[in-house]
């Protein structure tokens, strides 16, 4: 029988406690404690454990929160629908300090599938269910009118992350 035990660790970030999850070799989740969809990839059985992937993730987070762009990424393992996996792959390509809109992602998906349009709301739902916060930068996605919306970790944290990355937030606003 396949081992389904999962592991967790914690990380104290400048903007709140993070819980890290792993299947052993790969990172499967990073959530701010108490955020929406917290622990979405965790099974009922998990244990706190020190793992190399957690040490790599903490080194990545230390680099990131010191204002530098990490030049490595721990091994990630994502599970989700094909649509969500496609969206999360797009998120991984958003450059540090830049933002894109839900609409722009929807247009990218529509173009790749040969569709006339794609729902920005469907994209927003997939972005919101991203299980690996910060490393997969869903905080870099904004409303098409510049509104700061839709971050499961909270808008204050979204602003903090964009500010840390020195993104241009001068035209962004709360919805």
Structure description:
The protein has 175 residues and is α/β, with parallel strands linked by helices. It has two domains: 6-65, Double Stranded RNA Binding Domain (2-Layer Sandwich), CATH 3.30.160.70; 82-174, Arc Repressor Mutant, subunit A (Orthogonal Bundle), CATH 1.10.10.10. 32% of the residues lie in helices and 18% in strands. It has helices at residues 52-65, 82-92, 102-113, 120-128, 155-164, and strands spanning 6-13, 16-22, 27-32, 46-48, 100-101, 141-142, 147-148, 173-174. It has a four-stranded mixed beta sheet, covered by helices on one side. It has a two-stranded parallel ribbon with strand order 5-6. The protein has a two-stranded parallel sheet with strand order 7-8. Strand 7 (147-148), helix 5 and strand 8 (173-174) form a beta-alpha-beta unit. Helix 3 (102-113) crosses helix 4 (120-128). The mean pLDDT is 93.
